[in-house]
Amino acid sequence: MLSICVIATLTAISDSHLSSLLDPPPILGLSLIFLTVVILHYVVKNRQRLYLLLVTTALCLAALEAICRVLSVGDPGVATWIESTAHDIENRHLYEPNSSLIYTYPANPRGYFDEENRVLGTINAQGFRGPTREPEKSPDSTRILLLGDSFTLGIGVRDEHTLDRFVESALGTQTASIEVMNLGITGSNTRYQQSILKDYALHYHPDVIVMVMFPNDAQLKGTISFLSQPVVLRRIRQRSYFLNAFVGRFEKRTTHRRLIEHYLAGYTDNHAGWREIQASLQEAYKIARAHGIRFAVALFPVLIHLDTRYPLDAVHEIVAQFCAEANIPFCDLLPAFRGQDAPALWVHPADQHPNEIATKIAGTALATFLRQSGLAETNPSVGATPEDADSRDP
């Protein structure tokens, strides 16, 4: 029975963020076979001691549950997000001015959260995250606006660790007077971001606008809907760390397959979400050009299997091809993440948003793209077409 306890514990612990999320270890199958053989052998040989077996099994399960709770393995808790969304574009508010972003997690495995397992963010007086920016800017500065969803906003990271802060920091070392604004909104898609560009972003007279996409922009459920919500024995697993960790190992291959199919299906020619993305990007590019604004698109990868097994290369290729045909500068952030341990880039095992390590990787890569393409220059020699120059406001 001690052997059973040890093997089951190893199987559950293998579900921690130290192992690959979607690659069940061989020990799982071996453990199940071993457990079955041992239990059947014991029952056949010791029928009169069946009650002792049941009591011992119950005690072992209780011990397993205690071990998992102490190690925070298989925590069934979920992340909670509190945001005061305004979406009042006409009055220049994306979020309630001077409000707070509060992200609370069931545990603090990386030691990044505060004593209440929270991350607090700040919405400024103008209704977006980051430093306050006056609508008018210095003529010798370059203002870059990032449009995007929760990856751009920075769910689960502090104000100093958002994507815009890392882009500004990386550009500021080589380019004078750079301002990067964060216009990310949780749950927004490309179509809504295009409306922000038209009705809100122009108010701040940007030189550059980058629309930061994520694969679920094609009207799809996000990754967290797949990776953080149990299916089998859902109600029981909400009360048991061990059972959640153990049973979760069975779901992973199925979950992996469903997630990949879900995202790939969103980028076929007959999918309404992909058609909407294309129309929104074309319209956003047209609006930017009409105002003499340099425009680019960046694509964040899904943070799973960031190696040769990354399953969504096709999505990145499809978006890259469209941008090339539409003459839209495109920054694929996937190469910057190749070879990384994906779970180590999450803000929490229950929340696959990029943590401060991942946002720094993305911010550095985006800054490099903006610098090398000439889009971040005060007086760019590349990155703008003759039509852009002719259409600038007098």
- How many distinct beta strands? 12
User: SSE order in H/E notation?
Assistant: HHHEEEEEEHHEHEHHHHEHEHEEHH
The gyration radius over C-alpha positions equals 25 Å
The biggest beta sheet is recorded as:
5 strands, parallel
Helix % is: 40-55%
CATH topology of the largest domain: Rossmann fold
Q: What strand order characterises the main sheet?
A: 7-6-8-9-10
List keywords for this structure.
12 strands; 3-stranded antiparallel sheet; 14 helices; 5-stranded parallel sheet; disordered C terminus; alpha/beta; Rossmann fold
Quick recap of the structure?
The protein has helices at 2-13, 27-45, 50-71, 150-153, 163-172, 190-199, 224-227, 234-237, 241-265, 272-290, 313-325, 334-337, 356-373, 386-390; strands spanning 80-82, 85-88, 93-95, 100-104, 118-122, 142-148, 178-184, 208-213, 294-299, 330-332, 346-348, 351-354.
How is this structure best described in words?
The protein has 14 helices and 12 strands. By secondary structure, it is α/β, with parallel strands linked by helices. It has 2 domains: 2-73, no CATH class; 131-220 and 266-390, SGNH hydrolase (Rossmann fold), CATH 3.40.50. Helix 1 (2-13) runs antiparallel to helix 2 and helix 5 packs across helix 13 (356-373). The longest helix has 25 residues, at 241-265. The chain is elongated, with a radius of gyration of 25 Å.
